[in-house]
Here is the input.
Amino acid sequence: MKSPCLLSIDVIEKFWRQARLWEGFMTKETMGLAGSDRSQWDAALHLVFDRVDGQTKLSERAHEGPLYVQKPFYPEGQEHPHVYILHPPGGIVSGDCLEVDIEVSKGASGLVTTPGATRFYRAREDKGVQTQNTQIIVRERASFEWFPMETIIFNKANVRMSTTIDLEEGGNFIGWEISCFGRPASSDFFTEGSFYQTYFLRINGQPQFVDHLSIEGGTESVLSDCSGFRGNTVSGFILIGPFLDSGEAFQESLRSAYETIDLGESDLTAISKVSDFFVGRYLGNSADTAKRIFLSWWSVLRPLLLNRSPCPPRIWST
Here is the structure.
């Protein structure tokens, strides 16, 4: 394991503009070749946040393969750093496996995000699996925010994703997951392939939230079924907690938080308290709308849970 390079935010923004430009040159044919003409490209990232002298430091950072972080930013002061995870290849193809392991030590806190979407490209004809696993441990009286940008699943992708969060007593967690199936704007729909996702949160080893999404592409898939996605292509949820009281006092604020957001006719959204966590969901056709709705709820609940005003990462504005 070796330490990653530390990059300035200007370098990150330049990299991301170049990555978007590169993607524009990828045709359907070259995206298919990406998985068949090159070898497996695994990557792993290990991060540890520690509280030292009243500050949170990124005390351990190690990686294998093309998965990095840059120097933490402190827009909210030294107690709550913002860290960006970078994956220079820009996408995951057949045989690739990404592993992210994060530990937030006792009393520490932090926010981790990515500069842009994760893309699962079309798998090889032999249906090589594309895997991403995330393990997060939040120790006693620690707090962590996990905001990966949306996941785009290309047609004929073969995806396996899992996220596991373990909280100790007094630990707090806020995180979201947004999945986009196909690229409707390019008339490239998710009609073939598979997507299996699990999201599992425990407190002191006891399950508190379990979410499983299983989709097989096809005309009779969950995406098209009236009891499923109803033809929508974007699904997501945000998880915020734990809150030990009923949360009834927050409901009106949560309902009114997104009233200024322009929703489409097909957009469906709701938030409710499940056990000790608020769970908000979105179903529609816009990842940007999902994020705006989730951030409106975050702006209400974050100050109550973490005693911090909303402070979106700068990279989201680029």
